[in-house]
Design goal:
Helix 4 runs antiparallel to helix 8, helix 11 runs parallel beside helix 14 and helix 13 runs antiparallel to helix 16. Helix content is 81%, strand content 0%. It is built from 16 helices and no strands. By secondary structure, it is mainly alpha-helical. The longest helix is centred in the middle third of the chain and has 31 residues. The two termini are 30 Å apart. It is globular. It folds into two domains: 175 residues, Growth Hormone, Chain: A (Up-down Bundle); 192 residues, Growth Hormone, Chain: A (Up-down Bundle).
Amino acid sequence: MFKNKNVRLLCGMELQQGLVFYMPIATLYRQAAGIGLTQIALLESISLILSLALEMPWGMVADWIGYKNTMRVCSTLFFVSKVIFWRADGFGAFLAERILLAVVISGLSGVDSAMLYLSCPKKEWQQQLFAVYEGLGTAGMLAASLLYSMCFGNDYRLAGFWTMIAYGAAMVLSFFLKEPSKLMQKKEKGSLLLVIRSVLVRPELLLLLFAFGCFRETHQIVTVFLNQLQYGRAQIAVAWLGVLSAGMQVLGFLGMLSGRLTKALGECKTAILLMGCGALACVMLALTSSPAVSIFGVGLMSLAGSLLFPLQAVTENRQVRTAARATELSVYAMLSDSLAAGINVVFGRAADVSLPFAFWLGAGFCLAACAAYMVQACGEKNIR
C-alpha cells in the first residue's frame, strides 16, 4: 500500500501534525500568555461554530480546485496558525489562531479521507490503510507527550516553536502530493443542492451517520473528559494520569488490527460488536469506583474506537454517490458534528447530575448506535 507516493506523503503529514509538543500544557500555555479559562472556552466555541459554517463551502471549493490544491492551502494555513500560536500574547492573537484553525479543520474535513481512499492501490487495503493513518497520528501525539517531559520542562514557548517546525515539515510534504488518478473530474451546477438531496433521501445513510456519530461522540467524551472524573472517583492519584493517558494512546495502535477483525467477522458483526463493547464499558464505569475496573473500562472504550474508526472512514467513503466526493463527505461531517454538539450538551447536563448517570447515558447512546446500524444494514440488504 505504501508504493503509492500520495499514501506515503499523507502518512508522513499525519505523523508530523501529531507532533503537538505543547499538548500536555495547552491550557497552561494560554494562561501564561494572559488568557483566562472563560476566554479559552469562548475561543473554542467560536472555532467550533466557524468550522460548522465553513464545512460545506469548503467541500465545494475542494471539488472545484482539486484535493491536491486544497491540501496544500490547508497545510500552509495550518503552519501559519502554529506560527501565530508560538508568538501569541493576548486574546486577539489566540482568536486569530483559532479562526485559522477552524478554516483548516473544515477545509481538511473529508478531503484527507477522500484523498487517502482514492490513492489506496487496492480496495482490500483501504481499511488497513486508514488504521495505519490514524495510528501514525497517535504515534505523533504519544511521541510529543513523551518528548515534552524529557526536553521542554517549563519552557512553553520552546514547545510551541518545535510544534511550528513539525507543521512546517508537513506543509512542505503537501507540495509533493498529486491529484488521485481515480478522482472524478465532473463538475455539476448546483452540486451542493444535489449532494444534500442525495444524502437526505437515503434513510439508510442517515441511520449509518447517526450510528457512527453517536458512538464517536460518546467515545470522545468518555475517553477525553469523563475519564478524568472517573479516575478521581476511583481515587487514582493525579500523578498517574499522564501514565494512563499514554497507555490509552498506546491502545490506539491496536486499531491497525481493524482490517483483520473485519475480515474475520464481516463489517456488520464487527461494527455491532465494537459499539456493544462501548456500551459495556459505559455500564462498567457507571457501576464501579474500583481503580482497576475504571482503567479497564476506559481502555475498552478506547480500544473499541480505535478498531471502529478505520471501518467508519472506509464505509463513509464507499457511500458517496455523487461526483462531488469532498462536498458529500463534508455534508456527512456537518450532520455528524451537529449531532455531536447536541450529545455534548446532554452529556454535560447528565454529568452535572451525577457521573454514573452520564455513563448510563453513554451506554444508551452506544446501544442506540447499535440499533441504528442494524436497521440500516437490514435496509441495505433489502435494497440490494
